[in-house]
Write a structure and sequence with these properties.
Blueprint: H1 7-14, H2 19-28, E1 34-35, E2 41-42, H3 45-53
Length: 73
């Protein structure tokens, strides 16, 4: 078994063929991945399995600082 998902598996997971759209899909859902030299997302198979079985839940990524914690300044 390979360490990373095959391109077809990433396509099945995301429903997207283009690398940029695959990355956007994964990022929007809080998945951890890295891009290879071709810009394609690389996902560890063990991470994929843990995410889909509920053994691992990645918290949402904050896109902006939480300015409210500074008393509304």
């Amino acid at each position: 078994m390979k360490t990373y998902l095959e391109q077809e598996e990433v396509h099945q997971l995301t429903g997207r063929k283009q690398a940029a759209k695959q990355c956007a899909f994964l990022t929007d859902r809080g998945w951890c991945f890295f891009r290879n030299a071709d810009g394609r997302p690389q996902i560890l198979r063990t991470y994929h399995d843990a995410m889909l079985t509920g053994q691992l839940v990645t918290p949402p990524v904050a896109t902006e600082p939480a300015y409210g914690v500074f008393g509304g300044r």
